[in-house]
Design goal:
Blueprint (H helix, E strand, L loop, with lengths): L1 E6 L4 H13 L3 E6 L9 H14 L4 E6 L3 H7 L7 E3 L3 H9 L5 E5 L5 H13 L6 H13 L5
Parallel strand pairs: 1-2, 1-3, 3-5, 4-5
Helix pairs in contact: 2-3, 4-5
Length: 150
């Protein structure tokens, strides 16, 4: 799968670890927004690179890592076509895909260890959107994003 990965300074080490692991598993990393060692950066910058890569179709999905995952999700969700969700465990990762069709997974480098991050990402990458009753809700989200509706 084509993936985009990004982080701020707090998520840097986890993002680099994850990049190597995903490449080794056969995924193609098409966009990277990870700072150099010792650099300090703002999470909206990485969220923009990854979100735009997903929204344009360059990447099928994106992964963002910051201190909590929250700032990344807020910033990424400002990009039309992005549905970013913060996942705290395998259950939230699964539901973000199966019910919400999330195309960007946001993670906490401060609260999750590398092993849990790996488990979350592995689960998130294998789950497909269920559609059905959930599709109606996604269409409503898309309408809000487009400025339509009541």
């Amino acid at each position: 799968m084509k993936l985009a990965i990004g982080s701020d300074h707090r998520g840097r080490d986890a993002a680099l670890h994850l990049e190597k692991r995903l490449r080794d598993a056969g995924h193609e990393i098409v966009a990277m927004a990870v700072l150099g060692e010792g650099e300090i950066g703002d999470y909206p910058d990485a969220a923009s690179v990854v979100g735009r890569s997903v929204a344009s179709g360059e990447a099928a999905r994106g992964i963002l890592i910051c201190g909590t995952g929250l700032g990344m999700a807020i910033a990424a969700n400002k990009i039309q076509g992005v549905r970013a969700a913060t996942a705290h465990d395998e259950i939230t990762a699964e539901l973000s895909r199966s019910h919400l069709d999330a195309n960007v997974c946001c993670l906490s480098a401060d609260l999750l260890g590398l092993r849990l991050i790996e488990k979350i990402v592995d689960r998130w990458l294998t789950i497909e959107f269920e559609g059905g009753r959930h599709q109606r809700r996604i269409e409503k989200i898309n309408a809000i994003e487009a400025g339509e509706g009541d």
